[in-house]
Specification:
Length: about 250
């Protein structure tokens, strides 16, 4: 079975760093879980801590796994030029564009739950998916991260989820991007992978490639539940998953 994990955070939320010892633990876990590709995608706020020589050293030490350099970038409309300029010096294999904020409010953090009270009906989901569409069209990313993470705390929309998500999926398809199955949602209040099954099925219908991400913030969680994500993909009809090398997509048959 092909397994890749392109969504991992060695620097976590700043508690740990991109050190040789820490990154090596991620690599060992990725190997133990049978990943062909392991991608590091720290949050862009930790960009300064990325050390390419650490990855190069570990790649030489562990040739049995392909190590990829990525970044999870917070997408905020209007900051595209700034993002492009900031990231230009780095030889990323791929960039994950993620929406974690709507109108300056961080909706996926338990400290800011009050923000949900402002929203009724479909408004929040509409705003979220509009931003996802903009992220897709920005030309900055190869992958859209956790495509419906707006479900994280179980806040519901009124209309069917797929109806609200479809324009964003179409933007992703038109821009030629991939999405990920992010297994971490299972450990959040929503208790489900991102995206929801019906969204994934529509992505398949639209011909959108998929990659896999555990969103591990510690080595123990690298590649967590990815076999199950692969089973889901196969059920839906997917026959391959993708990884990236220097921005180019690589497909692995499932
Ligand atoms: Zn994220
Ligand atoms: Zn993440």
């Amino acid at each position: 079975m092909a397994l890749v994990d392109l969504h991992t955070h060695p620097s976590a939320h700043g508690e740990t760093g991109f050190s040789l010892e820490n990154v090596e633990q991620f690599v060992l876990r990725g190997i133990a879980r049978g990943c062909s590709d392991l991608g590091f995608s720290d949050h862009d706020m930790f960009l300064a801590g990325l050390k390419q020589e650490i990855l190069a050293n570990l790649q030489a030490k562990y040739p049995q796994i392909n190590l990829r350099l990525g970044l999870e970038v917070d997408y905020r409309p209007g900051t595209e030029a700034e993002i492009r300029q900031k990231l230009a010096p780095f030889p990323f294999d791929y960039l994950i564009g993620s929406v974690h904020e709507v109108g300056g409010w961080i909706f996926d953090h338990p400290d800011y739950m009050d923000g949900y009270k402002k929203y009724r009906g479909d408004d929040l989901y509409r705003e979220y998916f509009t931003l996802v569409g903009q992220a897709a069209r920005s030309g900055l990313f190869q992958v859209i991260g956790h495509p419906d993470v707006i479900r994280v705390f179980g806040f519901k929309c009124e209309s069917p989820l797929l109806e609200l998500a479809r324009p964003a999926l179409e933007a992703i398809r038109d821009a030629g991007l991939a999405i990920e199955i992010n297994t971490n949602g299972r450990y959040k209040p929503v208790g489900d992978f991102y995206p929801a099954r019906e969204v994934l099925a529509e992505a398949f219908r639209l011909g959108i490639p998929v990659t896999l991400g555990s969103d591990a913030h510690e080595a123990a969680n690298v590649a967590r539940d990815l076999e199950e994500a692969v089973d889901l993909l196969k059920e839906i009809g997917y026959r391959s998953i993708v990884s990236f090398q220097k921005g180019e997509r690589i497909a692995y048959p499932l």
